[in-house]
Amino acid sequence: MKHFYIATSIAVLLLLALPAAAQSPTITEIPFSSFVVPAGPGACTFDVLFAPEPGKPNGERLIQFGNSSIIAGPLFLTLTNQSTGKSINLNASGPQVTSLSGGIPTAVRTLERASY
Predict the structure, then answer these.
(1) Which of 10, 36, 45, 73 is most buried, taking the most CB atoms under 10 A from its CB?
(2) How confident is the prediction for the chain on average, in pLDDT?
(3) Residue 103: in which H helix or E strand, if any?
(4) Which among 53, 60, 59, 64 has a CA at the least distance from the CA of 103?
(5) Is the Cβ–Cβ distance between 47 and 36 less than 8 Å?
(6) What angle do CA 42, 49, 90 make, to 5 degrees?
(7) pTM for the model
(8) Segments making up each domain of the chain, as ranges
(9) Mean pLDDT across 66-81
């Protein structure tokens, strides 16, 4: 009889865990919007404009799982010195993996280096 209770308990636990394991990830498009990083401590001595590179893909996606997320897809940026107008193009495409603990990012790992 004891074995029956143990087997029943295990079966119930497995049945409760299966729906959580079967859930699909949530996928959200995250198009890049331009912004300026102002000069100051911890930044450059000049304002820098971050903008999508014209004519290049801008289609990253956020793929969220239960306790982690992946940012994947193409992202090409143009970084411009607002003082001189000089700019560089940057391939900042994913993937990047973020682990979450209570909804707060605890570890970020880039799977591929960005190319400059």
Answers:
(1) 73
(2) 78
(3) none
(4) 64
(5) yes
(6) 90
(7) 0.63
(8) 24-110
(9) 89
